[in-house]
Amino acid sequence: MDNEYIIKYVDALQVLDSRGDPTIEVIVKTVGGGIGRAIAPAGASRGKYEAVELRDSDVRKFKGKGVTKAVNNVKNYVAPALQGIDSRRQRDVDRIIIQIDGTPNKSQIGANTAIATSLAVAKAAADTAKIPLFNYLGGARAHILPIPMLNIINGGAHAGNELAVQEFMIVPIGFDSFSEALRAAVEIYKELKTYLKAKYGALAINVGDEGGFAPPMTMVREAIEALINAIKAAGYDVENQVRISLDAAASQFFIDEKNVYKIDGKELSKEELLEYWKQLIEEYSLLSIEDPFHEEDFESYAALRRETKDRVIVVGDDLTVTNIVRLNEAIGKGAVTGVIVKPNQVGTLSETMDFIELAKSRSIITIISHRSGESEDNTIAHLAVAVSGPFIKTGAPARGERTAKYNELLRIENYLGSEAIYAGKIYRF
Question: For binding substrate, which residues are annotated in this chain's numbering (predicted)?
Protein backbone atom coordinates (compact mmCIF):
# COMPACT_ATOMS: atom_id res chain seq x y z
CA MET A 1 0.00 0.00 0.00
CA ASP A 2 1.22 3.50 -0.85
CA ASN A 3 0.76 4.82 2.67
CA GLU A 4 3.57 2.47 3.75
CA TYR A 5 5.97 5.05 2.30
CA ILE A 6 4.66 7.95 4.39
CA ILE A 7 7.31 9.47 6.66
CA LYS A 8 6.26 8.73 10.22
CA TYR A 9 9.31 9.78 12.22
CA VAL A 10 12.43 11.89 11.77
CA ASP A 11 15.13 12.28 14.41
CA ALA A 12 18.78 13.23 14.64
CA LEU A 13 21.74 12.82 16.96
CA GLN A 14 25.36 13.84 17.24
CA VAL A 15 27.85 11.08 16.35
CA LEU A 16 31.57 11.01 15.50
CA ASP A 17 33.36 11.00 12.17
CA SER A 18 36.69 9.37 11.30
CA ARG A 19 38.68 12.31 12.68
CA GLY A 20 36.90 12.13 16.03
CA ASP A 21 34.92 15.27 15.22
CA PRO A 22 31.16 15.47 15.79
CA THR A 23 28.81 15.07 12.87
CA ILE A 24 25.09 14.60 12.44
CA GLU A 25 23.20 11.37 11.85
CA VAL A 26 19.56 11.54 10.73
CA ILE A 27 17.10 8.68 11.16
CA VAL A 28 13.90 8.43 9.11
CA LYS A 29 11.13 5.85 9.61
CA THR A 30 8.14 5.20 7.39
CA VAL A 31 4.67 3.92 8.24
CA GLY A 32 5.59 0.63 6.57
CA GLY A 33 8.55 0.10 8.88
CA GLY A 34 11.30 1.25 6.53
CA ILE A 35 14.31 2.80 8.25
CA GLY A 36 16.95 5.07 6.75
CA ARG A 37 20.06 6.34 8.50
CA ALA A 38 22.59 8.72 7.00
CA ILE A 39 25.66 10.45 8.43
CA ALA A 40 27.04 13.70 7.02
CA PRO A 41 30.76 13.63 6.10
CA ALA A 42 33.12 16.61 6.36
CA GLY A 43 36.02 17.77 4.21
CA ALA A 44 39.39 19.16 5.25
CA SER A 45 40.09 20.66 1.83
CA ARG A 46 36.92 22.58 0.96
CA GLY A 47 36.05 24.67 -2.05
CA LYS A 48 34.83 28.13 -1.12
CA TYR A 49 31.67 27.65 -3.19
CA GLU A 50 30.55 24.56 -1.26
CA ALA A 51 27.34 24.53 0.73
CA VAL A 52 28.12 25.45 4.34
CA GLU A 53 28.04 22.96 7.19
CA LEU A 54 26.67 24.17 10.53
CA ARG A 55 28.85 23.93 13.65
CA ASP A 56 28.10 25.10 17.19
CA SER A 57 31.24 27.24 17.64
CA ASP A 58 31.14 26.61 21.41
CA VAL A 59 34.86 26.19 22.09
CA ARG A 60 34.15 24.60 25.47
CA LYS A 61 32.79 21.51 23.70
CA PHE A 62 34.61 19.64 20.92
CA LYS A 63 36.67 22.81 20.32
CA GLY A 64 33.71 24.46 18.63
CA LYS A 65 32.96 21.61 16.24
CA GLY A 66 29.79 20.30 17.87
CA VAL A 67 26.65 19.91 15.77
CA THR A 68 23.88 20.26 18.34
CA LYS A 69 22.48 23.23 16.37
CA ALA A 70 22.20 21.01 13.31
CA VAL A 71 20.56 18.26 15.37
CA ASN A 72 18.06 20.75 16.81
CA ASN A 73 17.29 22.05 13.33
CA VAL A 74 16.18 18.56 12.36
CA LYS A 75 14.11 18.09 15.49
CA ASN A 76 12.49 21.53 15.50
CA TYR A 77 12.07 22.44 11.84
CA VAL A 78 12.79 19.61 9.41
CA ALA A 79 11.03 16.74 11.16
CA PRO A 80 7.64 18.48 11.55
CA ALA A 81 7.74 19.55 7.88
CA LEU A 82 8.52 16.08 6.56
CA GLN A 83 6.16 14.00 8.66
CA GLY A 84 3.28 12.82 6.47
CA ILE A 85 5.23 13.21 3.19
CA ASP A 86 5.65 10.24 0.84
CA SER A 87 9.31 9.23 1.17
CA ARG A 88 9.45 8.34 -2.53
CA ARG A 89 8.83 11.96 -3.47
CA GLN A 90 12.49 12.84 -3.13
CA ARG A 91 12.26 16.15 -4.98
CA ASP A 92 9.40 17.29 -2.77
CA VAL A 93 11.39 16.30 0.30
CA ASP A 94 14.47 18.14 -0.90
CA ARG A 95 12.44 21.18 -1.93
CA ILE A 96 11.02 21.38 1.61
CA ILE A 97 14.55 21.17 3.06
CA ILE A 98 15.73 23.93 0.71
CA GLN A 99 12.73 26.12 1.59
CA ILE A 100 13.25 25.67 5.32
CA ASP A 101 16.85 26.76 4.88
CA GLY A 102 16.11 29.70 2.60
CA THR A 103 19.74 30.51 1.72
CA PRO A 104 21.72 29.83 -1.48
CA ASN A 105 24.37 27.79 0.36
CA LYS A 106 22.40 25.91 3.09
CA SER A 107 23.98 28.11 5.77
CA GLN A 108 20.80 28.49 7.83
CA ILE A 109 20.13 24.86 8.70
CA GLY A 110 23.51 23.59 7.50
CA ALA A 111 24.51 21.46 4.53
CA ASN A 112 25.30 18.68 7.01
CA THR A 113 21.70 18.80 8.27
CA ALA A 114 20.36 18.87 4.72
CA ILE A 115 22.38 16.03 3.20
CA ALA A 116 21.96 13.65 6.14
CA THR A 117 18.20 14.18 6.04
CA SER A 118 17.92 13.93 2.26
CA LEU A 119 19.88 10.68 2.09
CA ALA A 120 18.11 9.18 5.10
CA VAL A 121 14.74 9.71 3.38
CA ALA A 122 15.94 7.92 0.23
CA LYS A 123 17.28 5.04 2.30
CA ALA A 124 14.00 4.77 4.22
CA ALA A 125 12.05 4.59 0.95
CA ALA A 126 14.38 1.88 -0.37
CA ASP A 127 14.06 -0.06 2.86
CA THR A 128 10.27 0.21 2.72
CA ALA A 129 10.39 -1.19 -0.82
CA LYS A 130 12.74 -3.91 0.44
CA ILE A 131 15.29 -3.30 -2.30
CA PRO A 132 18.92 -2.12 -2.14
CA LEU A 133 19.47 1.63 -2.37
CA PHE A 134 21.40 1.37 -5.65
CA ASN A 135 18.47 -0.48 -7.19
CA TYR A 136 15.96 2.03 -5.79
CA LEU A 137 17.91 4.98 -7.21
CA GLY A 138 19.11 3.46 -10.48
CA GLY A 139 16.53 0.84 -11.44
CA ALA A 140 17.31 -2.13 -13.67
CA ARG A 141 20.18 -0.29 -15.41
CA ALA A 142 22.19 -0.14 -12.16
CA HIS A 143 24.61 -3.02 -12.60
CA ILE A 144 27.99 -1.40 -13.35
CA LEU A 145 30.58 -1.51 -10.55
CA PRO A 146 32.82 1.59 -10.45
CA ILE A 147 36.58 1.71 -10.87
CA PRO A 148 38.13 2.62 -7.51
CA MET A 149 40.60 5.49 -7.31
CA LEU A 150 42.61 4.68 -4.19
CA ASN A 151 44.56 7.42 -2.44
CA ILE A 152 47.50 5.48 -1.01
CA ILE A 153 50.01 8.30 -0.52
CA ASN A 154 48.63 11.35 1.27
CA GLY A 155 49.97 14.89 1.12
CA GLY A 156 48.63 18.42 1.38
CA ALA A 157 45.81 18.99 3.86
CA HIS A 158 45.45 15.23 4.43
CA ALA A 159 48.90 14.62 5.91
CA GLY A 160 51.70 16.12 7.96
CA ASN A 161 54.46 15.84 5.34
CA GLU A 162 55.76 18.40 2.84
CA LEU A 163 54.10 17.07 -0.29
CA ALA A 164 52.09 19.84 -1.94
CA VAL A 165 49.88 17.45 -3.93
CA GLN A 166 47.11 16.11 -1.74
CA GLU A 167 46.46 12.64 -3.15
CA PHE A 168 48.50 10.10 -5.09
CA MET A 169 46.12 7.43 -6.35
CA ILE A 170 46.30 4.05 -8.00
CA VAL A 171 43.48 3.22 -10.41
CA PRO A 172 43.10 -0.51 -11.21
CA ILE A 173 41.38 -0.31 -14.59
CA GLY A 174 42.51 -3.45 -16.40
CA PHE A 175 40.62 -6.16 -14.54
CA ASP A 176 37.55 -8.30 -15.16
CA SER A 177 35.68 -7.51 -11.95
CA PHE A 178 35.54 -5.06 -9.09
CA SER A 179 36.69 -7.70 -6.63
CA GLU A 180 39.77 -8.50 -8.75
CA ALA A 181 40.59 -4.80 -9.08
CA LEU A 182 40.28 -4.33 -5.33
CA ARG A 183 42.50 -7.35 -4.68
CA ALA A 184 45.19 -5.84 -6.90
CA ALA A 185 44.88 -2.52 -5.07
CA VAL A 186 45.31 -4.20 -1.69
CA GLU A 187 48.39 -6.08 -2.91
CA ILE A 188 49.91 -2.84 -4.23
CA TYR A 189 49.11 -1.09 -0.95
CA LYS A 190 50.95 -3.82 0.96
CA GLU A 191 53.97 -3.61 -1.36
CA LEU A 192 54.03 0.16 -0.92
CA LYS A 193 54.07 -0.27 2.85
CA THR A 194 57.07 -2.60 2.59
CA TYR A 195 58.88 -0.20 0.25
CA LEU A 196 58.27 2.90 2.38
CA LYS A 197 59.29 1.22 5.62
CA ALA A 198 62.52 -0.05 4.10
CA LYS A 199 63.41 3.30 2.52
CA TYR A 200 62.22 5.84 5.08
CA GLY A 201 61.79 3.94 8.34
CA ALA A 202 58.80 2.88 10.46
CA LEU A 203 57.35 6.40 10.74
CA ALA A 204 56.81 6.45 6.98
CA ILE A 205 53.94 3.98 7.23
CA ASN A 206 51.82 6.19 9.45
CA VAL A 207 48.58 6.91 7.62
CA GLY A 208 46.76 10.13 6.78
CA ASP A 209 43.07 10.99 6.96
CA GLU A 210 42.13 8.77 4.03
CA GLY A 211 44.17 5.72 4.96
CA GLY A 212 47.07 6.41 2.63
CA PHE A 213 50.62 6.53 3.90
CA ALA A 214 52.15 9.87 4.80
CA PRO A 215 55.89 9.38 4.25
CA PRO A 216 58.45 12.17 4.81
CA MET A 217 58.57 13.18 1.16
CA THR A 218 58.85 16.62 -0.40
CA MET A 219 58.88 15.98 -4.17
CA VAL A 220 55.90 14.92 -6.26
CA ARG A 221 57.98 12.65 -8.51
CA GLU A 222 59.30 10.87 -5.43
CA ALA A 223 55.75 9.85 -4.49
CA ILE A 224 54.84 8.80 -8.05
CA GLU A 225 57.98 6.67 -8.33
CA ALA A 226 57.06 4.96 -5.05
CA LEU A 227 53.65 4.05 -6.53
CA ILE A 228 55.26 2.69 -9.69
CA ASN A 229 57.67 0.60 -7.63
CA ALA A 230 54.78 -0.87 -5.62
CA ILE A 231 52.67 -1.60 -8.72
CA LYS A 232 55.54 -3.46 -10.37
CA ALA A 233 56.51 -5.27 -7.16
CA ALA A 234 52.95 -6.57 -6.92
CA GLY A 235 53.28 -7.95 -10.45
CA TYR A 236 51.04 -5.51 -12.32
CA ASP A 237 51.44 -3.46 -15.49
CA VAL A 238 51.56 0.31 -15.02
CA GLU A 239 50.26 1.07 -18.52
CA ASN A 240 47.44 -1.43 -18.97
CA GLN A 241 46.30 -2.64 -15.57
CA VAL A 242 46.94 0.06 -12.97
CA ARG A 243 47.15 3.78 -13.79
CA ILE A 244 48.15 6.69 -11.57
CA SER A 245 46.02 9.75 -10.80
CA LEU A 246 46.65 12.90 -8.77
CA ASP A 247 44.46 15.18 -6.74
CA ALA A 248 46.55 18.33 -6.67
CA ALA A 249 44.06 20.40 -4.62
CA ALA A 250 46.05 23.36 -5.97
CA SER A 251 44.03 25.97 -4.07
CA GLN A 252 45.78 24.64 -0.97
CA PHE A 253 49.27 25.52 -2.25
CA PHE A 254 48.33 28.66 -4.17
CA ILE A 255 49.79 31.82 -2.61
CA ASP A 256 47.21 34.46 -3.46
CA GLU A 257 49.22 37.55 -2.60
CA LYS A 258 52.06 36.43 -4.88
CA ASN A 259 49.87 34.73 -7.51
CA VAL A 260 52.14 31.69 -7.46
CA TYR A 261 51.97 28.01 -6.54
CA LYS A 262 54.45 26.54 -4.05
CA ILE A 263 55.29 22.99 -5.07
CA ASP A 264 58.46 20.89 -4.80
CA GLY A 265 60.03 23.72 -2.82
CA LYS A 266 59.62 26.18 -5.73
CA GLU A 267 57.25 29.02 -6.50
CA LEU A 268 55.69 28.59 -9.95
CA SER A 269 53.50 30.88 -12.02
CA LYS A 270 50.37 29.36 -13.53
CA GLU A 271 52.20 29.07 -16.86
CA GLU A 272 55.11 27.26 -15.20
CA LEU A 273 52.72 24.99 -13.32
CA LEU A 274 51.00 24.14 -16.60
CA GLU A 275 54.34 23.05 -18.05
CA TYR A 276 55.06 21.07 -14.88
CA TRP A 277 51.79 19.13 -15.22
CA LYS A 278 52.48 18.49 -18.91
CA GLN A 279 55.86 16.99 -18.03
CA LEU A 280 54.34 14.66 -15.42
CA ILE A 281 51.59 13.57 -17.81
CA GLU A 282 54.19 12.75 -20.46
CA GLU A 283 56.55 10.96 -18.07
CA TYR A 284 54.00 8.87 -16.19
CA SER A 285 50.98 8.61 -18.50
CA LEU A 286 48.77 9.97 -15.73
CA LEU A 287 45.11 9.04 -15.99
CA SER A 288 43.73 12.18 -14.34
CA ILE A 289 44.63 15.34 -12.45
CA GLU A 290 42.08 16.82 -10.09
CA ASP A 291 42.08 20.55 -9.29
CA PRO A 292 45.41 21.27 -11.05
CA PHE A 293 44.91 25.03 -10.56
CA HIS A 294 43.13 27.14 -7.97
CA GLU A 295 39.35 27.24 -7.86
CA GLU A 296 38.89 30.50 -9.80
CA ASP A 297 41.18 29.77 -12.74
CA PHE A 298 38.88 28.16 -15.32
CA GLU A 299 41.17 29.34 -18.10
CA SER A 300 44.21 27.36 -16.90
CA TYR A 301 42.10 24.21 -16.64
CA ALA A 302 41.03 24.74 -20.24
CA ALA A 303 44.63 25.39 -21.31
CA LEU A 304 45.73 22.09 -19.77
CA ARG A 305 42.99 20.29 -21.71
CA ARG A 306 44.01 21.94 -24.97
CA GLU A 307 47.74 21.47 -24.61
CA THR A 308 47.51 17.81 -23.60
CA LYS A 309 44.90 17.11 -26.29
CA ASP A 310 42.75 15.47 -23.60
CA ARG A 311 45.32 12.72 -22.95
CA VAL A 312 44.58 13.24 -19.26
CA ILE A 313 41.20 13.63 -17.54
CA VAL A 314 41.11 17.18 -16.16
CA VAL A 315 38.91 16.95 -13.08
CA GLY A 316 37.11 19.71 -11.22
CA ASP A 317 36.34 19.47 -7.51
CA ASP A 318 36.99 22.78 -5.74
CA LEU A 319 36.31 24.29 -9.16
CA THR A 320 32.81 22.81 -9.55
CA VAL A 321 31.78 21.73 -6.00
CA THR A 322 28.84 19.58 -7.18
CA ASN A 323 27.12 22.82 -8.15
CA ILE A 324 25.25 23.18 -11.44
CA VAL A 325 26.04 26.89 -11.79
CA ARG A 326 29.78 26.22 -11.43
CA LEU A 327 29.56 23.21 -13.75
CA ASN A 328 27.80 25.25 -16.44
CA GLU A 329 30.59 27.83 -16.22
CA ALA A 330 33.20 25.08 -16.51
CA ILE A 331 31.39 23.61 -19.52
CA GLY A 332 31.14 27.01 -21.19
CA LYS A 333 34.87 27.57 -20.80
CA GLY A 334 35.89 24.03 -21.77
CA ALA A 335 37.61 23.64 -18.43
CA VAL A 336 37.00 19.99 -17.45
CA THR A 337 36.54 16.49 -18.78
CA GLY A 338 35.71 15.04 -15.36
CA VAL A 339 34.06 16.18 -12.13
CA ILE A 340 34.05 15.05 -8.52
CA VAL A 341 30.60 14.40 -7.04
CA LYS A 342 30.29 14.97 -3.29
CA PRO A 343 26.65 15.11 -2.14
CA ASN A 344 27.43 17.19 0.95
CA GLN A 345 28.95 19.92 -1.23
CA VAL A 346 25.47 20.79 -2.50
CA GLY A 347 23.28 19.45 0.31
CA THR A 348 20.51 17.28 -1.19
CA LEU A 349 20.26 14.09 -3.22
CA SER A 350 18.10 15.75 -5.91
CA GLU A 351 20.66 18.48 -6.54
CA THR A 352 23.42 15.86 -6.63
CA MET A 353 21.54 13.83 -9.24
CA ASP A 354 20.86 16.93 -11.33
CA PHE A 355 24.58 17.72 -11.30
CA ILE A 356 25.38 14.17 -12.45
CA GLU A 357 22.80 14.30 -15.23
CA LEU A 358 24.15 17.59 -16.54
CA ALA A 359 27.70 16.23 -16.52
CA LYS A 360 26.68 13.07 -18.33
CA SER A 361 24.71 15.02 -20.93
CA ARG A 362 27.96 16.80 -21.85
CA SER A 363 30.08 13.60 -21.78
CA ILE A 364 31.87 14.69 -18.63
CA ILE A 365 33.13 11.82 -16.48
CA THR A 366 31.63 11.62 -12.99
CA ILE A 367 33.64 10.47 -9.98
CA ILE A 368 31.56 9.77 -6.88
CA SER A 369 33.63 10.78 -3.88
CA HIS A 370 33.98 10.53 -0.13
CA ARG A 371 35.33 13.28 2.13
CA SER A 372 38.42 13.13 4.34
CA GLY A 373 36.17 13.18 7.42
CA GLU A 374 34.02 10.09 6.84
CA SER A 375 32.00 7.50 8.74
CA GLU A 376 30.72 3.96 8.38
CA ASP A 377 27.91 5.31 6.17
CA ASN A 378 28.18 3.54 2.80
CA THR A 379 25.65 5.54 0.76
CA ILE A 380 28.15 6.66 -1.88
CA ALA A 381 28.86 3.03 -2.83
CA HIS A 382 25.21 2.68 -3.78
CA LEU A 383 25.17 6.06 -5.52
CA ALA A 384 28.16 5.11 -7.69
CA VAL A 385 26.40 1.94 -8.90
CA ALA A 386 23.06 3.72 -9.29
CA VAL A 387 24.51 6.26 -11.75
CA SER A 388 26.94 3.84 -13.46
CA GLY A 389 30.07 5.58 -12.18
CA PRO A 390 32.46 5.10 -13.84
CA PHE A 391 34.73 5.95 -10.88
CA ILE A 392 34.56 6.08 -7.10
CA LYS A 393 37.04 7.78 -4.78
CA THR A 394 36.88 6.52 -1.23
CA GLY A 395 40.44 6.31 0.05
CA ALA A 396 43.00 3.61 0.68
CA PRO A 397 41.96 0.00 1.37
CA ALA A 398 42.41 0.66 5.09
CA ARG A 399 40.53 2.30 7.98
CA GLY A 400 36.97 1.19 8.63
CA GLU A 401 35.27 4.28 7.23
CA ARG A 402 37.00 3.61 3.87
CA THR A 403 36.65 -0.18 3.76
CA ALA A 404 32.94 0.23 4.62
CA LYS A 405 32.44 1.54 1.08
CA TYR A 406 34.63 -1.10 -0.58
CA ASN A 407 32.95 -3.89 1.38
CA GLU A 408 29.53 -2.60 0.36
CA LEU A 409 30.61 -2.63 -3.29
CA LEU A 410 31.74 -6.24 -2.86
CA ARG A 411 28.31 -7.05 -1.42
CA ILE A 412 26.60 -5.31 -4.34
CA GLU A 413 28.76 -7.23 -6.82
CA ASN A 414 27.83 -10.47 -5.07
CA TYR A 415 24.14 -9.49 -5.04
CA LEU A 416 24.16 -8.76 -8.77
CA GLY A 417 25.98 -11.99 -9.60
CA SER A 418 26.37 -12.53 -13.34
CA GLU A 419 24.68 -9.18 -14.05
CA ALA A 420 27.55 -7.26 -12.46
CA ILE A 421 29.88 -5.57 -14.95
CA TYR A 422 33.10 -3.85 -13.96
CA ALA A 423 33.42 -0.35 -15.42
CA GLY A 424 37.03 -1.03 -16.35
CA LYS A 425 35.83 -3.53 -18.95
CA ILE A 426 33.52 -1.16 -20.79
CA TYR A 427 35.06 2.30 -20.44
CA ARG A 428 38.23 3.31 -22.28
CA PHE A 429 40.35 6.20 -21.13
Answer: 158, 167, 290, 317, 369-372, 393
* Catalytic-role residue among 342, 351, 401, 413: 342
Q: How many domains are contained in the chain?
A: 2
Calpha distance 170→9 (Å, rounded): 43
Return the half-sphere exposure (C-beta side, CA atoms, 13 A cut-off) of residue 220.
Answer: 28
What pLDDT score was predicted for residue 45? 65
**Residue 167 marked in a binding site:** yes
Q: Is 94 annotated as a binding residue?
A: no
pLDDT single digits (tens) 106-145? 999 999 999 999 999 999 999 999 999 999 999 999 999 9
Is 317 within any annotated ligand binding site?
A: yes
pLDDT at 208: 85
CA 423 distance to own-chain centroid: 17
The reply, when asked if residue 187 is annotated as ligand binding, is no
Q: Would you give the DSSP letter of residue 75? A: I
Is 166 among the annotated ligand-binding positions? Answer: yes
Instruction: Identify the domain boundary among 130, 150, 170.
Output: 130
Same domain membership, residue 205 and residue 120: no
- Domain identity same for 238 and 338: yes
Residues 223 and 368 in one domain: yes
Residue partners of 351: CB distance under 8 A and separation at least 6: 94, 322, 324
- What pLDDT score was predicted for residue 1? 58
Q: Model confidence over 370-409: pLDDT tens digits?
A: 999 999 999 999 999 999 989 999 999 999 999 999 999 9
342 is catalytic: yes
Per-residue b/e over 9-33, b at no fewer than 16 CB within 10 Å?
A: ebebeebebbeeebbbbbbbbbbbe
Which residue range is the domain that position 108 belongs to?
2-130
Residue 405: active-site member: no
Q: Are residues 282 and 422 in the same domain?
A: yes
Closest CA relative to residue 359, chosen from 381, 394, 335 = 335
Q: Determine the residue type at 160.
A: G
Q: Which one is catalytic: 50, 210, 374, 401?
A: 210
End-to-end C-alpha distance for the chain, whole angstroms: 46
